[in-house]
Specification:
Helices cover 46% and strands 15% of the residues. The chain is α/β, with parallel strands linked by helices and 231 residues long. The chain has a seven-stranded parallel sheet, with helices on both faces. Strand 1, helix 1 and strand 2 form a beta-alpha-beta unit. Helix 3 packs parallel to helix 4 (101-128) and helix 4 runs parallel beside helix 5.
């Protein structure tokens, strides 16, 4: 069975992806900071009959990242790495003139540095896979200028560039930066707590990721809504 590592997998998009891959027979290594919530998610995902390893921790910890890859190796290797764990930098979001620099450093460390660190750790196993792939969860905030989203957006823009270069440097892999679009997640609620407008559930964009895995288009940046609509 193929093996995937998914960070930020206890809820939201990470958990939705885990459920979908498990339903397809994937074995999984799941990460999140909250041990209790991750345990509950892993038990639910394992109900599909696949092997699921839950490893709570912080993706900025090199030892934790090594543990994720080691757990995947025990399941047979690494065929897919999904860097979904994200940090906003400030909750709620702030204008750049007020953004604590420590918050910006945290966003960059989680969203960019840790994502690359995990790929570096997994790269030998990804190269051995017959269909190795990396998914970086991006955001339209990395491509558009939205007030108060500057710190988070800067980290996602950096992640997009990292993914683009990795795709060139590793032609044997598929490296996709994916903008999932608006979703009803805890991350968005923390970012803009006063926004009560309805948003799509994370499950609604999962077909976009499955399409990428099925069709394996060229490495690059993709929008999940367009993929779901068949564009």
């Amino acid at each position: 069975m193929p093996v995937a590592i998914i960070t930020g997998a206890s809820k939201g998009l990470g958990r939705a992806l885990a459920e979908a891959l498990a339903a397809r027979g994937w074995d999984l290594v799941l990460d999140a900071r909250s041990a209790a919530v991750l345990k509950e998610a892993a038990e639910a995902v394992a109900g599909h009959g696949t092997r699921v390893t839950a490893l709570p921790g912080d993706v900025t910890d090199a030892g934790h990242r090594a543990g994720l890859v080691a757990s995947a190796w025990e399941l047979g290797g690494v065929d897919l790495v999904v860097s979904n764990a994200s940090a906003l930098g400030a909750e709620p979001l702030l204008r750049l003139g007020e953004l604590p620099l420590e918050g910006l450093r945290r966003a960059l460390e989680v969203n960019v540095v840790a994502a690359l660190g995990l790929v570096q750790e997994a790269l030998p196993l990804l190269r051995e896979s017959a269909a190795g792939a990396v998914v970086m969860i991006s955001s339209d905030a990395g491509a558009e200028a939205y007030e108060t989203w500057g710190g988070y957006g800067a980290s996602k823009a950096a992640l997009d560039q990292l993914a683009a270069v990795l795709g060139v440097e590793e032609p044997g892999l598929r490296v996709w930066a994916v903008d999932p679009g608006d979703m009803a997640t805890d991350l968005y609620a923390a970012a803009v707590p006063d926004d009560e407008d309805p948003r799509p559930a994370p499950e609604s964009v999962v077909p976009a990721f499955l399409r990428l895995l099925d069709e394996r288009p060229a490495s690059g940046r993709y929008g999940a809504p367009a993929l779901v609509e068949g564009r």
